[in-house]
UniProtKB/TrEMBL annotation, chains A, B:
SUPFAM superfamilies referenced in this protein's UniProt entry, alphabetically: Actin-like ATPase domain (SSF53067)
Taxonomic lineage of the native organism: Bacteria, Pseudomonadati, Bacteroidota, Flavobacteriia, Flavobacteriales
Species of the source: Chryseobacterium pennipullorum
Family, per entry: Belongs to the ROK (NagC/XylR) family.
InterPro entries for the chain: ATPase_NBD, ROK, ROK_cs
Name this polypeptide is given: ROK family protein
Tree of life domain: Bacteria
Length: 322, 322
């Protein structure tokens, strides 16, 4: 029979982070049928990592391969280049230089492999399986240790001429502002709206306001989680830390909206646990910096995907992308 | 014979500005076979304007229609919406409200009609006939009385979910900065890098520096043209006016590059007559605000199209857009 039974087709989704790598077998409905993980930073050589990944995945592939067809492998990784299939100069991964990752994966697994950066993968996942289902124009912002982004326009990811488009975390929101700990740029969105940025803001503000509850923690326990605890107890300084973060985020979002006029902006990642403490000021400052024709049109929403599965779903979505 | 002879197919391109409207008959090679113009602001009612346009165009259409086939009409106009075929709330046009312009044109000319905003039309013209031939990812910035933009990604114009994408002139480059004379926003690119913005900068700087040559002109003669004259005579204040303008432009361009990673940024419009006085600082400040992976990759170039024809070519390009 030549008809293809979609329910039998699956993809392997792999999400590579600096510490952990997660993988899963995903079907067309975005269901993770099986999953597992391994340590990224336990492998100094990328070939060893891929061998180990194969050892982990092989039993699952055999189990599912008996009744299902593997269409390919999708990989989300920092600094991954869709066009070239490479991972390039990723500061948080153990493997240095320019790595032909897709090629190495295909050689080992004998399956087609596509790679893209982790935020792009998350955007694809949202479009196929999450809060952006049916949307053709939206922007995904991941607020974690860093700030990543994936931009969908006309139903497609924007890769740019070289595959590196969508580095919105590094756009400047305050010229001459806070120096970024890694890039050295001044006043980037990531310097304010990442978990790292929030920690810096919190340490500065608690030093200025000795009465803040934030001063009850030792220096190394100040982070977005403890700021959230204090904000929930109505500490005005902790609330101000998030308000300031939300303002900077909102100002940046206004610029993004006037670029690609998305239907929605999806927020994702650890920082969104702060909820309305960040979302409300972000919305306010986005709207007030927009031209009237853009106002009250753009939905600002949190991701609907289960965080543990989202990255795997997003990576697997690469396999079925048009 | 059913084969289509491309050399016989033509489009009518119309560029509507606040004062003048230009039109031309254009072939597939981007040659303007015939052209003309009329006053936009002489017609208080849009129906009267379209009747007058028809009277002007009709003799040319008859002349060319004998041997050529008209595929359609493309219109570039401020605040024009590609999806809806409308011109909406355009502050510089005599016709108020939301005008179903494409529909009115089709009713009068009996030809399909597409509209888009003038900067989008210019971007299409550059892609088909100008400096961006063969490029799939570039950004067009028009620096005139205002600052407009058209963004091409994956070979297509980015329209956004509502048709209003690409308002880069209104993105904020200096939060809390110069108040825009019309929108009221603070620190937008247009407030600094438009001809109007340059005039404001020049008036401020000449007041601070009595020795500047700029003080030899009466107040109402200070504009980008007279600043250019003084800069050519090596007046350091006039040069500084352009340097500051270029810096703000370059800072904005860096943010745009990190959004869509274009192969080139094309600059167009009256302000580019300032040449290297603006281009060099723009390039410098663009590069220094980019992440290393984007540096020394993006060409910053002036439009190649003849300015008188560019708008007509761009509008006609709408007809043949995929």
């Amino acid at each position: 029979m030549s008809l293809i039974d979609l329910s039998k087709q699956v993809a392997l989704g792999v999400d590579i982070g600096g510490t952990n790598t997660k993988f899963g077998i995903v079907n067309h409905r975005g269901e993770v049928l099986d999953k597992g993980n391994l340590k990224t930073d336990a492998y100094d050589k990328v070939e060893d990592f891929i061998d180990a990944l194969y050892e982990h995945v092989q039993p699952l592939m055999e189990k599912h391969g008996a009744v299902r067809h593997f269409d390919g492998i999708g990989v989300g990784a920092p600094n991954a280049n869709y066009y070239k299939g490479t991972i390039e100069l990723a500061p948080n991964l153990p493997w240095k230089g320019v790595i032909p990752f897709a090629e190495l994966m295909t050689a080992k697994f004998n399956l087609p492999c596509k790679v893209t950066n982790d935020a792009n993968a998350a955007a694809l996942g949202e479009m196929l399986f999450g809060a952006a289902r049916g949307m053709k124009d939206f922007i995904m912002i991941t607020l974690g240790t860093g700030v990543g982004s994936g931009i969908i326009a006309n139903g497609n990811l924007i890769y740019g001429h070289d595959g590196f488009a969508g580095e919105l975390g590094h756009t400047i929101v305050k010229p001459g502002g806070r120096k970024h700990w890694s890039t050295g740029s001044e006043g980037s969105l990531e310097a304010y709206a990442s978990a790292t940025g929030i920690t810096i803001t919190a340490k500065k503000m608690r030093a200025e306001f000795p009465e803040s509850m934030l001063n009850q923690y030792p220096e190394d326990e100040i982070n977005s989680k403890t700021v959230y605890e204090c904000a929930m107890k109505e500490d005005p300084i902790a609330i101000e830390v998030f308000r300031y973060t939300g303002q900077k985020l909102g100002e940046a979002l206004a610029n993004f909206v006037m670029f690609s006029s998305p239907q929605a902006i999806l927020l994702f990642g650890g920082v969104i646990k702060a909820g309305d403490f960040i979302l409300k000021p972000a919305k306010l400052h986005m709207e007030r910096n927009l031209l009237p024709i853009f106002r009250n049109k753009v939905k600002l929403v949190f991701s609907e995907l289960d965080e543990a599965d989202a990255a795997i779903l997003g990576a697997s979505a690469l396999v079925w992308e048009k």
